[in-house]
Amino acid sequence: EKGAVDDMVGAGMTFTNFYAADSVCSPSRAALMTGRQPFRSGFSNSSERMFTPDTVSGLSLDEYTAAEALSDLGYATGMVGKWHLGINAYNHSDGYYLPSNQGFDYVGHMLPHGNDGDCDEYSTEGASSFACFLYIGTDIVQQPFYHKPLTQQMVIDAKFFISENRDRPFFLYFSFVQAHVNLFASDRFNGSSSRGPYGDNINEMMWAMDEIIEFVRELDLDNDTLTVFSSDNGPSTRSCLNGGDSGLFNGGKESYYEGGLRMPVAMTWPGVIPPGSVNSNIGSLMDLYPTFVELAGGELRTDIVYDGVSLAGAILNPDVAWPRDSLLQYCQEYLYGVRYGNFKIAFGAIGDVDRDYLTCFCGDGELKMVSLTVGCQPSETYINECGEGMFDSPRIYNIEHDPREMFPLSPDLNLNLIDAVYDIILEFNSTIIYSDSVLGETSCAARPCCDTNRTDCVC
Fold first, then answer.
1. d(CA 133, CA 145)
2. CB 254 within 8 A of CB 23
3. Cβ neighbours of residue 179 closer than 8 Å, sequence gap 6 or more
4. Residue 179: is the preceding peptide bond cis (ω within 30°)?
5. Is the pLDDT of residue 428 over 80?
6. Rounded to 5 degrees, what are φ and ψ at 29?
7. DSSP string, 39-66
8. How large is the average pLDDT for residues 290-311?
């Protein structure tokens, strides 16, 4: 069951050591949009890690997003799909934090919160109107929304945006709803995969990718177009067979093991990026912002602290030295690890795979929400809040040899490595300025509602 992802791998460059800046949606996407560690944007000092539908904050409008930077360089900017960087600030419809206020000229079908387990319209309880809503631009068009036509609607939006801007530079942020529980597929892809509902979901995603890439090719724009594929966090291993698989890595979504942070990344640019090439250097989704700006002919603002670095020179010319040899991995204001060369120095870990819990909770592989009432509880050692799980002393792993982080090396035999990493941390610490937390504060008044005359907000 191969598709567009496999085609991108064959046609372009695969990155094997590329990382998200967080292992859950909102802070990871904030880093992608800003090129900065999430704590610089206020993702700190909270037991919450993500925005909820009734959160009264979001990605600050003071942030200078990638969309704003590219717009200032003459690019048309468009977005479809999942946002998850804030919705309303004051009431049910002000849309203060929506992408149209963050630099995007065009916003098609868009989920400002996302798709989660409460959004299954075929469940016994039905989909929750308080957590599941579909927008076009700044307006709610369905509450709750219907899944089956969603991917096709997003593809139509993307083609419209590309067609409208074929004669000028454009930046399209196509943010797939896949592969997030609750899983869905249109009738065409339902039952298409031997992997079950998860495979059906992925097959439809790959169809959508192929549609867009082929459309760019039909418009004869492919030789002028950089296409990047990635994810914002690892698979939801706690969602049983519905949640994906982190393979040889430990952990998944929420965790600060490799399975939560290391991303599948592929880039294509015909005539520029060699087909079938592999890059094993350390990279970060924070690097995409500076890379895009340099490729667009711009420069980063000097009044902003960026944590991403431009990869443009090294991607365009393999003889150019790779600009990054280390990466600090924060969960809010807590430093959990540093990738340095082939090594990882871990200062803590959260979100280890709790196999006893999964065996009970998943049963025959299907997620059983009622299982919590029959004795399935996470082990006392399972933690997923930032600031927990810190080690008494750093642990050193050779990630190339030990990707599951099972066998820590002796610190006494790696003193030079430790000294080098602490020098990196000290230099980085001099740049830290914390913003007020954007997490945790909620108000029912800010929860999206398309019809306030109805108590259930259904339309």
1. 5
2. yes
3. 198, 201, 202, 205, 235, 244
4. yes
5. yes
6. -70, -35
7. GGGT--S-S--S--TTBS--S-TTS--H
8. 98
106-111 and 134-136 beta bridge pairing: antiparallel
Q: Where are the alpha helices (DSSP H) in 288-403?
A: 288-295, 312-316, 355-362
Tokens standing for residue 355: 């196999």
CB 211 within 8 A of CB 155: yes
Q: Provide the β-strand partners of residue 77.
A: 171
Contacts of 302 (CB under 8 A, 6+ apart): none
Average pLDDT over residues 328-346: 97
Q: What would the DSSP string read from start to end of 78-142?
A: EEEEE--S---SSSTT--TTSGGGTT-SEEEEEESS---GGG-TTSSS---TTT--EEETTEEEE
Give the pairing of strands 227-229 and 262-268: antiparallel
The pLDDT of residue 383: 64
Structure tokens at 384: 């997923």
Amino acid at 19: Y
User: 372 pLDDT band (50/70/90 cuts)?
Assistant: very low
Is 106 or 354 the better-scoring residue by pLDDT? 106
Measured in Å, how far apart are the chain's first and last C-alpha atoms?
Answer: 38
pTM score: 0.94
**Dihedrals φ, ψ of 146, to 5°?**
-100, 130
Active-site annotation holds for 147: no
Q: Determine whether 84 is an active site residue.
A: yes
Residue type, 440: G
CA-nearest of 336, 359, 178, 199 to 254 is: 336
Of 364, 366, 356, 382, nearest to 252 (Cα)? 382
Distance CA 96, CA 102 (A): 9
For 21, the 3-state DSSP assignment is coil
Structure-token pair, residue 417: 């490595």
What CA dihedral angle connects 75, 318, 234 and 245, to 10 degrees? 130
Pick the closest to residue 267 from 23, 10, 50 (CA basis). Answer: 10
Whose tokens are 């500076």? That residue is 290
